[in-house]
Amino acid sequence: MEITFLKYQGAGNDFILLDNRDRKYSSLNKNLISKLCDRRFGIGADGLMLLENHPDYDFQMHYYNADGGLGSMCGNGGRCIVAFAHHLKIIETETNFLAVDGPHYAKITQNPFVVELQMIDVEEFRIDKEATILNTGSPHYVLPVVDLPSFNVYEKGRDIRYNDEFKAQGINVNFCEWKNNILKVRTYERGVEDETFACGTGVTAAAMAHALKHQLEGDIDTKISVLGGELNVKFKKTGNRFTSVFLIGPAELVFKGTINII
């Protein structure tokens, strides 16, 4: 099979994007997707997305983790597929599309090219000692730490992801530190099973956990620093409820090409 693809990145979170409106790539299976995402023997990516037609939305997003398994919502992936839809001239500056966790609205601003993606409302969470556990389209465990740059994200994140409570379904593990009015976040992602340069649902969860811990209220705009760059998370917090949630940041076309899968 010859596959024509575009590669996008959002704050260092990188994805393979395929136009599947003609169902050409519907036969891709877990092994093939994993091979495409492999950084030594394939294209290399944190995940792969299929853009498909939908009768009630501009398009539908199907997201697969780097291990080839069907994934939950990916925030930076959502922003990148919006940029992809713009590239394909499916949309102009605004869109409503469908993802695994439901409908999403997004808008594009130019100079520089930035995608603002509306995430799901959140009103359920759990506090476990110092950690906050919540679902922002994907399940997340958020833990504040000291000296994040030297923290062993892979080892500690893997320990939590595979502990007795979470190993069956998996969980994404975020470590964060508030410094100079910026929330610094590093994430171990399930499905990738490693630290990634950014995680959109993860930084959204981290911003919410920070607001809960510090009892913030009202309209909140949190600057986020990740290994791959800068993001912003905006929401309205009323008590324990988060609404009008937006993940904001760049979505960049890196390269395009074809690959033959044998």
If you had to describe this structure to a student in words, what would you say it looks like?
- The strands form two sheets. Strands 5, 6, 7, 8, 9, 10, 11, 12, 13, 14, 15 and 16 form a twelve-stranded mixed β-sheet that branches.
- This protein has two domains: 125 residues, Diaminopimelate Epimerase, Chain A, domain 1, CATH 3.10.310.10; 124 residues, Diaminopimelate Epimerase, Chain A, domain 1.
- The chain has 262 residues and is an alpha+beta fold.
- The chain starts with a strand and ends with a strand.
Name the features:
262 residues, alpha+beta, Diaminopimelate Epimerase, Chain A, domain 1, 2 domains, twelve-stranded mixed sheet, five-stranded mixed sheet, 17 strands
Report a brief summary of the structure.
The chain has 262 residues and is an alpha+beta fold. The chain has helices spanning 30-37, 75-87, 153-161, 200-213; strands at 2-10, 13-19, 47-54, 57-65, 94-99, 102-109, 114-118, 125-128, 131-135, 139-144, 172-179, 182-189, 194-196, 218-226, 229-238, 241-250, 252-260. 17% of the residues lie in helices and 47% in strands.
